[in-house]
């Protein structure tokens, strides 16, 4: 039974401002599901010695190590070499991987060349995990003392493929009977972390045997209840979760780790209701989030990105006199956008946002960060006003979340 | 002069599947601009000993260390304590930080409580970096041997604020005269990494004194030319960059690290031309990317998220007979969407996408991953067909990129 694992992420691009490392999140999530805790991610540049030493250090601490990246065709792809050196093995061409890559390339009308052929190289003795969405295969290596190292390609879709196709089944076999980490979750929005702490303190929560942990971010706070030890029964955790949910009414929107757009999607699908969006300053972010959910076409009709005022008038029917008098960033425009998109697309709900994301366009009266979000349904329109701090990116993120949050509250009210 | 720095990212949420660590990318980018290389990011959970040891290890290797997260109000926020222990200092309440937080809270109609007050605690002797977009301030600490440790809050917008407001000015002062790392960039799209390598090899590129490095991902390959040593003149790098650009015609779209949407935005703004989008399977992702660029309202009119077929017909004028006969994911529908949105929004260019992002909805004839992207202007409509591998997320990402790439080629053709 494996309890802890580490990740070594390789690639200068992860440290020089070019790419975000998304592997730790994905891997951490999948490992938790089989009762393994990811306890460290060490991100290092492309360098044989630095990769070798980081993997060696990880193998000192844990029995399962994942290495991402550095399996590509160029001379700065050195993960294979680092691992071969660490394990004292050679490097060989894998015939199956080479055949797979050649066939894929021919189908795509490209030819195999020396650089590409490099991607079929594997550490001697590796179990080869064929990559059907990219080129270089994954590899499973075993150390002399029986520890396991998985090598995965760096591109996120290939990393995900190798993880899902080979590594998760392997983990489930290894961990049979381990079960997931025991925890109870409460996802909240509209309440701050310190307010939650205070409510808990006033109520003498948590009870003995239960520990709390918090994660704040992206406009929500996640409360996690964990057993203080293996002797704590599931029933104690369940009872604590119920008490916590009561203490945090009406801020809990989910009891599992789901995005708000998933919860909204389930509610709409269950009720057979539909949704349309009208976005100004978010430019399509809300639609993009809603449609990230598989099956969203059942309840999401679509929307209008009404960036220019002329589009607000022409496609959403916003009154041009109101646009002139009140300005595009105003309560009545948000209301007309929400109702306009609902009616024109024939949806049950319309969601709108209009705001000033900056850095330009602000004034004393209407500062950067001023945002109106609206929700319309057959019963009427509701608009909320916010002023968000931060830069363009965080204002747009916060606005997207506020719109989904308002819609959620309308759906459950 | 500082040459290398490390980041220690703290927070169980970064390893358990809840959050992506975006700090390394941002920090790495900003450090490069002042000639400092970020050489490692160690992500660890919330734990006093593990944070203390990770920072200590980093201070063994480099003279500048950044620590993110763990400055919040709850008992699992332990970065202050870890640093105090490491440096042998106490922890004190900072009056200015407390006053700032109290005032911000009062303005927001919230009250100061014991948990929130914890966020005004700093390591004794720290320079306090007031946080005007969140609660806990940043801190600058100096070790006994003159090394520097910056503590930054974990929420990305607060991290960005403290970095931009205090740390970058400090770095520029420290690094006065250091200059940025010397490199020449070529951003390419539409050509694979190994094809680039082969073109270079055939041409005997690079010349002496110049080294190449590659970063592939997100549908593009970045080629970086670096001097082999300090004696290599800038003119040698410049000449090599020109040669590389010639060898890679027509795939180079930028010579600096910019997103394609920035390049497109500049072209449109220079020419006084405008753009509208019609998105189906991407659900707004293209609009979201275009509007992430400050000032995009000058050239981006907006668009239609035509998720349901009825919206394609009603808002974009797609022929319902064609929708029935050819299906929504087809060449003629992509063409009509691009031209429809261009005409209805009165823009110079219309961009469209329609495809099957999966996991459901595929067939033998129209598999998951089949995508059509279109660009329309006054001269006509151009549509390209792709079949992307991978899951829903990567198909949607690839589709967004393909649409922007097609538009870019149309703009420069």
Can you describe what's shown?
- The structure is a homodimer of 413-residue chains.
- Chain A contains 14 helices and 17 strands.
- Chain A is an alpha/beta fold.
- Chain A has a 6-stranded mixed β-sheet with strand order 2-1-3-8-7-6, sandwiched between helices. A 5-stranded mixed β-sheet of chain A has the order 14-13-15-16-17, with helices on both faces.
- In chain A, helix 1 (23-32) runs parallel beside helix 6 (156-174) and helix 2 (48-61) crosses helix 3.
- The longest helix of chain A has 21 residues, at 392-412.
- Chain A is globular, with a radius of gyration of 26 Å.
- The two termini of chain A are 46 Å apart.
- The model of chain A has no long low-confidence stretch (mean pLDDT 91).
- Chains A and B meet through helix 1, strand 2, helix 5, helix 6 and helix 7 of A and helix 1, strand 2, helix 5, helix 6 and helix 7 of B.
- Strand 2 (37-44) of chain A pairs antiparallel with strand 2 of chain B, so a sheet runs across the interface.
- Count the DSSP helices of chain A: 14
Low-confidence parts of chain A, pLDDT < 50 over ≥5 residues? none
Rounded mean pLDDT of chain A is: 91
Gap from first CA to last CA of chain A: 46 Å
Question: Most extensive interface, residues per chain?
Answer: A-B, 106 and 106 residues
Strand-residue fraction of chain A? 15-25%
Rg on CA atoms of chain A, Å:
26 Å
* Biggest sheet strand line-up of chain A: 2-1-3-8-7-6
Derived structural class of chain A: alpha/beta
Count of beta strands of chain A: 17
